[in-house]
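Run log, item B.
One chain of 384 residues. Sequence copied directly from the ordering sheet:
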Amino acid sequence: MRNVKKLALIAAIVASLSFLLPIKVSHWFASSARATDVQQSNSNNTPTLSQSCQNQSLPLLQVDGKRIKDEAGNKVTLRGISFCGFNNAWGEQVLPDFKQKITKVTNGTNGWYPNLLRLPIKNYHLDNFSLEQVYQTLQAGVDECVKQQVYCIIDWHAVDGEEGADWRSPEMKRQTKAFWSYIAPRFKDYPNVIFELYNEPSYPKLVSKYNWKIWRSVAQEWVDLIRENSPRNIILIGSPLWSQITRYAPDYPFAGSNLAYVNHTYKGMEESWPKEVGLEYDWEEVFGKAADRVPIFLTEFGWQADAEWEFSKATTAEFGQPMKEFLSKRPNINWVVWTYDHYCSPRLVDESDRVLGGNKMGIFVRQWLQEEWSKPTNPLKSCS
């Protein structure tokens, strides 16, 4: 009988202390993983935001001066991740499975904590699929973003130079009009949706206000088309030279409400800037000063020391840390890192969704997003 009582006492003590074990084990694994170059994703046991926000709607966002604000007038900062729009190496032949991708990075499940995701549709997807099929693909992604309580960008991911794309051509004008005529009205009632007008117009490859004005004279019609079909959603507007001449937006803005401007920047892009006319490439001149007057979204930036794409080859010390320091001084700039899909470079994860570290940006960006999540301007913070 005495032995039975002892065993019962031991069992009670073990039961009372057992809750400490998973804490110690998870802490050990987290500490060990941070020391590795390739880091496995965290456990899917992390509570999701949708559990605490499932009955809430995200507030519709609006432009107010250089800031993005919610309907109550609170300042909002958006930080997140872009997908590249591919499911395989032949991306234009398969529509993206956005729903499956979104669940990997939302709600802190893998420690990412974005409040904005970018959903690209390539212009040459329309060569293989109908607008209705493209819409169904986007709807599945947007609905998942609603469920997971994150904002999303529907990105018309035309890239000038790929497959002969050129924003000035009759064919690209036709495709762009067709895309937005079909897509914009179907998402006009989604408060979490933002539209990105045209990913990367390139030609002519000149840094000049004349070039900006020529672009504006064509693209204004597309802005008006979206606004006619979707009166309230924010529209993001890029510019020629792969969305690099954002500097002219404050002095020569597009007409309309709830408009913001896009910049893309990677290591090596300075080679495309015309130093011979006295223009030096630095972030302050390229988009920093503009952000003091109009809302700016960096919808693409990234780095990877062994990137396949020449323009993104850089280390974290060369590019990632300086960019973080620059953006910390301008918190009103909203940003999205390129890219989560391993088919596109630079990338955050490998083909097994393991987070890349070292001179690849995955671990650095994931920790950065976690830091940004805690800030009071995060519109989703109250859901965690």
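Observations after the first pass:
- The longest helix spans residues 209-229.
- The two ends are 50 Å apart (CA to CA).
Flagged for discussion on Thursday.
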